[in-house]
Amino acid sequence: MGGYKEYKIGVIMFLAVFGMAVFMTIGIGGVYLGSVPATQLALEKQVHYGSSAWSIRDPLMKGWNQPKIQKADGTMVSDPVGVGKKIFIREGCWHCHTLLPEQTSDWEYFGAPPLAGDFVGESPTVIGSDRKAPDLMHVGSRMPSMAWHLQHHKDPRSVQAKSIMQSFDFLETSELKALATYMVSLK
Ligand code: HEC
Question: What residues flank ligand 1, with Cβ below 6 Å?
């Protein structure tokens, strides 16, 4: 027969285990991520965007690929790549596409998988979790043409007859251009 005391012990134990799990995931995980050494790519980002790009505590859309970036002299300028990434997130492109080639035979086609540290400073990452469509991490190397991306986003079946990708012709021309700029930047 469980009494009030047992009930309280149960709640306390639940909270303790839950608290420990949160601490281990966020606390220890954060310390570990902070100690991951910077890759060449991450160092280049740091030179380009300054030290603010080098933090896992950045709020949404900070660091590499944010819609507005702060130059070394403090002025804020619009970054077309970041604007495109924001549209990529808003339109749910990541429901079908990943930006993370898996280390299986498919990376021979999609390109090399990322190294630890490649995503540091990028928030949010759009690595995705479900691949219904080609991985896009290196799509700019396979498909370097802005015109191709514009045409494909407006009417996928005009360039890939059996594509299941929906048309994005409802987007503004400037948004389509930003998306294409983001795609071409993914090398
Ligand atoms: C319903 C799933 C789906 C969604 C959502 C989707 N795509 Fe696609 N996408 C595909 C499929 C399937 C292909 C392969 C056929 C083709 O090329 O159209 C593809 C191909 C592509 C390619 C060419 C890749 C290559 O290697 O040839 C690009 C670039 C692309 N999509 C960008 C986008 C962008 C940007 C968005 C969001 C605005 C988006 N996709 C949303 C399914 C999707």
Answer: 88, 91-93, 95-97, 132-134, 136, 139, 142-143, 149, 156, 160, 163-166, 168, 179, 183
Q: Which atom of ligand 1 is nearest to the CA of 110?
A: 26
pTM (predicted TM-score): 0.74
pLDDT confidence tier of residue 5, bands split at 50, 70 and 90: confident
Residues 46-105 have pLDDT tens digits of 666 555 444 444 334 545 566 666 677 877 777 788 888 888 988 999 999 999 888 888
Strand (E) positions, 52-181? 62-63, 68-70, 76-78, 122-123
Question: From the CA of 72, how far away is ligand 1's center (Å)?
Answer: 35
CA–CA dist 54, 122 (Å, integer): 8
